[in-house]
Write a structure and sequence with these properties.
The structure is a single chain. This protein has 63 residues and is mainly α. The chain has one domain (4-62). It contains three helices and no strands. The protein has helices at 4-13, 18-38, 42-62. Helix 1 (4-13) packs antiparallel against helix 2 (18-38). It is flat and about 40 Å long.
Protein backbone atom coordinates (compact mmCIF):
# COMPACT_ATOMS: atom_id res chain seq x y z
CA UNK A 1 0.00 0.00 0.00
CA UNK A 2 2.55 2.65 0.95
CA UNK A 3 4.43 2.29 -2.35
CA UNK A 4 1.39 3.68 -4.17
CA UNK A 5 2.23 7.20 -2.97
CA UNK A 6 5.74 7.33 -4.53
CA UNK A 7 4.48 5.55 -7.64
CA UNK A 8 1.67 8.06 -8.16
CA UNK A 9 4.12 10.93 -7.59
CA UNK A 10 6.48 9.59 -10.27
CA UNK A 11 3.63 9.02 -12.72
CA UNK A 12 2.38 12.57 -12.18
CA UNK A 13 5.87 14.03 -12.68
CA UNK A 14 6.58 12.05 -15.89
CA UNK A 15 5.14 14.98 -17.83
CA UNK A 16 8.09 17.00 -16.55
CA UNK A 17 11.84 16.45 -17.21
CA UNK A 18 13.08 12.95 -16.40
CA UNK A 19 15.52 14.22 -13.77
CA UNK A 20 12.65 15.89 -11.90
CA UNK A 21 10.52 12.74 -12.08
CA UNK A 22 13.39 10.57 -10.82
CA UNK A 23 14.19 13.01 -8.03
CA UNK A 24 10.55 13.13 -7.03
CA UNK A 25 10.47 9.33 -6.91
CA UNK A 26 13.45 9.12 -4.58
CA UNK A 27 12.25 12.07 -2.50
CA UNK A 28 8.77 10.55 -2.21
CA UNK A 29 10.12 7.14 -1.17
CA UNK A 30 12.20 8.67 1.62
CA UNK A 31 9.46 10.97 2.93
CA UNK A 32 6.74 8.31 2.71
CA UNK A 33 8.95 5.93 4.71
CA UNK A 34 9.73 8.74 7.20
CA UNK A 35 6.03 9.54 7.62
CA UNK A 36 5.07 5.93 8.22
CA UNK A 37 7.94 5.36 10.65
CA UNK A 38 7.08 8.43 12.74
CA UNK A 39 3.31 8.53 12.11
CA UNK A 40 3.63 12.22 11.28
CA UNK A 41 3.20 14.01 7.95
CA UNK A 42 4.26 17.48 9.11
CA UNK A 43 7.86 17.34 7.82
CA UNK A 44 6.92 16.08 4.33
CA UNK A 45 4.17 18.70 4.16
CA UNK A 46 6.53 21.52 5.15
CA UNK A 47 9.20 20.38 2.68
CA UNK A 48 6.62 20.20 -0.11
CA UNK A 49 5.30 23.65 0.81
CA UNK A 50 8.84 25.06 0.82
CA UNK A 51 9.57 23.65 -2.64
CA UNK A 52 6.29 24.97 -4.05
CA UNK A 53 6.90 28.46 -2.63
CA UNK A 54 10.40 28.47 -4.15
CA UNK A 55 9.04 27.40 -7.54
CA UNK A 56 6.32 30.06 -7.46
CA UNK A 57 8.81 32.74 -6.40
CA UNK A 58 11.22 31.72 -9.17
CA UNK A 59 8.43 31.87 -11.74
CA UNK A 60 7.36 35.33 -10.54
CA UNK A 61 10.93 36.66 -10.59
CA UNK A 62 11.66 35.27 -14.07
CA UNK A 63 8.52 36.63 -15.74
Amino acid sequence: GWLLVPLSEVLYHLQKPLLEAAGMGLFSLVLTWWSLKRKNVLLPFLIHLYIEVLLIAARILVF
